[in-house]
Amino acid sequence: MNDPAPDTTSPSGAWDPAACAPYLAPPTAADHKYSRGVLGLRTGSPAYPGAAVLGAEAAWRTGAGLVQFVPPVGGTAPLFGMPSPAATVLAARPETVVSRSPDRVDAWLVGSGTDPEARPKAETDELAELLTQRRPVIIDAGALDLCLLRRDERFRVAPVAITPHAGEFARLWRALGGSRPTDDAGSLGSAEATAQLAKRLDVTVLLKGSVTTIASPSGDIVTVGPATPWLATAGTGDVLAGIVGTLAARHAGLVRRGGLVGPAGTDWPDWPAGQIGLADRAPVLAELCATAVLLHDIAARIASGDSGGSAGAASSILGRPITALDVARSIPAAVERLLGP
Ligand SMILES: NC(=O)C1=CN([C@@H]2O[C@H](COP(=O)(O)OP(=O)(O)OC[C@H]3O[C@@H](n4cnc5c(N)ncnc54)[C@H](OP(=O)(O)O)[C@@H]3O)[C@@H](O)[C@H]2O)[C@@H](O)CC1
Ligand SMILES: Nc1ncnc2c1ncn2[C@@H]1O[C@H](COP(=O)(O)OP(=O)(O)O)[C@@H](O)[C@H]1O
C-alpha cells in the first residue's frame, strides 16, 4: 500500500442524529425475539472475560432479540481462578444463551477481549469460516488480524465492519505494507487512510477516537464526534462493539441487500446471484456504525450527567467520570432520547 496523500478532502459528511431513527425503530406488534435480531458473540478469553460481559450487556441494552454466546474453542484454562467467559457473561446477563454452534444467528461480533497471540488454531479456523458466509460480521480488537484474509476472494462473502482504535489501525496499515501512520492515525489524515483501508479490504472501517471516522469500500466517509472525553476509559470500545453488532443483527437483511428493497419485499436469497456487489452493500453498514457511535456517545453523556452537552458537541468537558458498564446501562435512555420528539 502506498502512503496516503495528506488529507485535504473534507469528509463526505457528519452523521445527523435524525438519521439514526430508522435504525433504532421500536419493535412492532408483529415482532418476536428472532425477528428483532439474533447476535452471535465470539468474544472474551481466559485473560479478558470482562470484555465479553461488556459486549453482551451492550447488546441486550441496545434491544437485541437474542444474544447467543459461543465459548472460545480450546486454549488455556481460566487464569487466577477466574470464571470462564461464558460463566462470566451468564452471571451478568442470564438472558444470554450459551451454545457451541448456535443456529439463527443474524450477525456476528468477534474479537473483543481476545489476544491473537493466544488464539488456538481451531478458533482461528472457525472465525475465518464466518467470513465465507453471508451474515454480517463485526470484527473488533484481538480478531482484527482476520480482516487481512479479505485479500483472498474466498473470505469476501460476509459484509464486514472492523472497529480498530488508532493503535490497531496502525498495525493493520503496516501489515498491508504502509509505512505511515506510525502509531498516530490522527497525524496522517485519517479520513484518507481509513478510506484506503476500507477499499483495500472491502470492509467498512470504524476508526475510533474523539472524532470517529467511518469509511465504506465505496469511498464514502462519515464522521461522528467529538464524543465526550469521559469515554476514554477501559472497556468502552467493547461496549461500542456490542452496539454495532446488535444493529447489524437487527438489520442484517438490509445490510445484505445494501439498503435496496427487493421485488415484492424479497430478501437476499431470492435475489439473482451477482446482482448486488459487496461495495453496494457497504454504505448501510456504515450508517449502522455511525448510528452506533452516536448512541454510544449519548449513552456516555447520560451516564456522566452531562445534561448540557449534545452528542457531537465540542464543548468544554461536562459531567463526571464513568465506567464502561455505566455507558452500557445508559443505552436504553440514549435510544429513547434519539427517538424522542
Ligand atoms: N475488561 C476487559 O476485559 C477489557 C479488555 N480489553 C481487551 O484488551 C485487549 C487489548 O486491547 P488494548 O487496546 O488494551 O491493547 P492493544 O491492542 O495492544 O492496543 C494498545 C496499543 O495501541 C496503542 N494505541 C495507539 N492509539 C491508541 C488508542 N487510541 N487507544 C488505545 N491504544 C492505542 C498503544 O500505544 P501507546 O499509545 O500507549 O504508545 C498501545 O501500545 C483487547 O482484546 C481488548 O478488547 C480492553 O477492551 C479493556 C477492558
Ligand atoms: N479522548 C476521547 N474522547 C472521546 N471518546 C474517546 C476518547 N478516547 C477514546 N474514546 C472512545 O472510547 C472508546 C475506546 O475504545 P477502545 O480504544 O477500543 O477501548 P477498550 O479496548 O478499552 O474498550 C471508543 O469508542 C473511542 O471512540
From TrEMBL:
<feature type="binding site">
    <location>
        <position position="238"/>
    </location>
    <ligand>
        <name>(6S)-NADPHX</name>
    </ligand>
</feature>
<dbReference type="InterPro" id="IPR000631">
    <property type="entry name" value="CARKD"/>
</dbReference>
<keyword id="KW-0067">ATP-binding</keyword>
<dbReference type="GO" id="GO:0005524">
    <property type="term" value="F:ATP binding"/>
</dbReference>
<dbReference type="GO" id="GO:0016301">
    <property type="term" value="F:kinase activity"/>
</dbReference>
<dbReference type="InterPro" id="IPR029056">
    <property type="entry name" value="Ribokinase-like"/>
</dbReference>
<feature type="binding site">
    <location>
        <position position="113"/>
    </location>
    <ligand>
        <name>(6S)-NADPHX</name>
    </ligand>
</feature>
<keyword id="KW-0520">NAD</keyword>
<dbReference type="GO" id="GO:0046496">
    <property type="term" value="P:nicotinamide nucleotide metabolic process"/>
</dbReference>
<protein>
    <recommendedName>
        <fullName>ADP-dependent (S)-NAD(P)H-hydrate dehydratase</fullName>
        <ecNumber>4.2.1.136</ecNumber>
    </recommendedName>
</protein>
<dbReference type="GO" id="GO:0110051">
    <property type="term" value="P:metabolite repair"/>
</dbReference>
<dbReference type="InterPro" id="IPR017953">
    <property type="entry name" value="Carbohydrate_kinase_pred_CS"/>
</dbReference>
<comment type="similarity">
    <text>Belongs to the NnrD/CARKD family.</text>
</comment>
<keyword id="KW-0808">Transferase</keyword>
<keyword id="KW-0521">NADP</keyword>
<feature type="binding site">
    <location>
        <position position="237"/>
    </location>
    <ligand>
        <name>AMP</name>
    </ligand>
</feature>
<feature type="binding site">
    <location>
        <position position="51"/>
    </location>
    <ligand>
        <name>(6S)-NADPHX</name>
    </ligand>
</feature>
<keyword id="KW-0547">Nucleotide-binding</keyword>
<comment type="subunit">
    <text>Homotetramer.</text>
</comment>
<dbReference type="GO" id="GO:0052856">
    <property type="term" value="F:NAD(P)HX epimerase activity"/>
</dbReference>
<keyword id="KW-0456">Lyase</keyword>
<comment type="function">
    <text>Catalyzes the dehydration of the S-form of NAD(P)HX at the expense of ADP, which is converted to AMP. Together with NAD(P)HX epimerase, which catalyzes the epimerization of the S- and R-forms, the enzyme allows the repair of both epimers of NAD(P)HX, a damaged form of NAD(P)H that is a result of enzymatic or heat-dependent hydration.</text>
</comment>
<dbReference type="GO" id="GO:0052855">
    <property type="term" value="F:ADP-dependent NAD(P)H-hydrate dehydratase activity"/>
</dbReference>
<dbReference type="Pfam" id="PF01256">
    <property type="entry name" value="Carb_kinase"/>
</dbReference>
<feature type="binding site">
    <location>
        <position position="165"/>
    </location>
    <ligand>
        <name>(6S)-NADPHX</name>
    </ligand>
</feature>
<feature type="domain" description="YjeF C-terminal">
    <location>
        <begin position="16"/>
        <end position="338"/>
    </location>
</feature>
<feature type="binding site">
    <location>
        <begin position="208"/>
        <end position="212"/>
    </location>
    <ligand>
        <name>AMP</name>
    </ligand>
</feature>
<keyword id="KW-0418">Kinase</keyword>
